[in-house]
Design brief:
The chain is mainly α. It has helices spanning 36-42, 45-56, 59-67, 74-85, 90-98, 111-128, 144-155, 160-182; strands at 19-20, 132-133. Helix 4 (74-85) packs antiparallel against helix 8 (160-182) and helix 5 crosses helix 8 (160-182).
Length: 188
């Protein structure tokens, strides 16, 4: 059986707000120093907001976390972020979804997969009017595309309020992962 053509590894065409998953972690990253949480706790409000916006994508969410510094440990910061995520308004949720980007797909992804992903995104956005987000923490790179497609297809059956709740939970999980990546080493 012959397979369709493959595309070289690259980012999908720029489709703003289509799907958000964290980039696949590189195995060769150098772990940050253990005093990153201390630096975050003592940073200026502007610097703390900037760092948090990169993880949380919502001004209100970032301000709420920054305003409650200092945090004794990373787990306390993550708990505060989780708690604040449960209070996201529809406006906060929309703001957080605005800057989400598409992931890099694995080498050898077939062109048919790009078509399927594009069609699934279009159907999702037409139904819910916002970007699709999913946290794929712990998912192997070769399973990324299948998980995204499976997630979109299964969530298309949700009613809008149910999907808003699921989307908020996925954003909370993404934010948690981004905070850990940003402040890695703070648990040491």
């Amino acid at each position: 059986m012959t397979r369709g053509p493959t595309l070289s590894a690259h980012r999908l065409p720029y489709l703003p707000g289509r799907v958000a998953i964290p980039a696949l972690q590189e195995q060769t990253r150098t772990p940050p120093s253990p005093n990153l949480l201390e630096k975050f706790n003592t940073a200026s409000a502007t610097d703390a907001h900037h760092l948090l916006l990169g993880c949380l994508r919502s001004l209100r969410w970032a301000r709420r976390i920054a305003d409650h510094r200092p945090y004794p440990d990373l787990d306390s910061l993550l708990a505060a972020s989780d708690e604040a995520a449960y209070d996201l308004t529809p406006g906060d949720l929309a703001e957080a979804l605005t800057d989400e980007t598409l992931p890099t797909l694995p080498d050898g992804t077939y062109s048919a997969a790009y078509t399927a992903l594009s069609a699934a995104h279009a159907a999702y956005e037409a139904r819910f009017g916002h970007a699709f987000v999913i946290c794929l923490d712990g998912v192997a790179g070769e399973e990324t595309l299948d998980r995204i497609l499976e997630g979109i297809r299964s969530r298309l059956t949700n009613d809008p309020e149910e999907e808003r709740v699921v989307t908020a939970e996925e954003l909370r999980r993404l934010a948690r992962e981004r905070l850990v990546d940003t402040l890695k080493g703070a648990r040491q």
